[in-house]
Amino acid sequence: ENSSAATTTALNHHHHHLSPYDDDGRPKRTGTVWTTSSHVITAVIGSGVLSLAWSIGQLGWIGGPLVLLFFSVVTLYTSYFLADSYRVGDPINGKRSYTYMEAIDNILGGKNFIFCGIMQYINLYATAIGFTIGAAISMM
Q1: Where is this region: Disordered (predicted)?
Q2: How many whole angstroms separate alpha carbon 83 and alpha carbon 90?
């Protein structure tokens, strides 16, 4: 009787992997290490990298590498934080957060969700202005 239950569990588990949907009903993600790496590279190597050498040069041989190291640690910390907040509650079976705002709503909720949303859009707006000015200066 136990072997029958084990076989049924194994079959259900096997069929779960054949399903085109994840455990939350959304289409299964098909990313690989290569697609993930390409997304990380395109996110990290952006227009900000173009001014990195000049910024380091302005800070000098001591300040430049120290600031670069500091922001590397901040980036690593926030990456760990975002990875930990991908699922709420249980890291294996918890509810997934597909967007930054969904993670904020699942974890903090309420007024914090509204405040973080406003801050996110202000940041997006300010970044767009900065990129527009930077592009205009570069074209000159």
Answers
A1: 1-25
A2: 13
pLDDT of residue 82: 79
Q: Is 48 within 8 Å of 131 (Cβ atoms)? A: no
Rounded to 5°, angle at Cα 49 from 69 and 68: 10
Tokens 């590279």 belong to 41
pLDDT at 27: 84
Q: Which amino acid is at 13?
A: H
Write the CA distances from 2 to 12, 15, 40, integer angstroms.
15, 20, 46
- What tens digit of pLDDT does each residue of 42-62 get? 877 766 677 777 888 889 989
pLDDT digit string, tens, across residues 73-84: 988 888 888 788
81/97 Cα distance (integer angstroms): 13
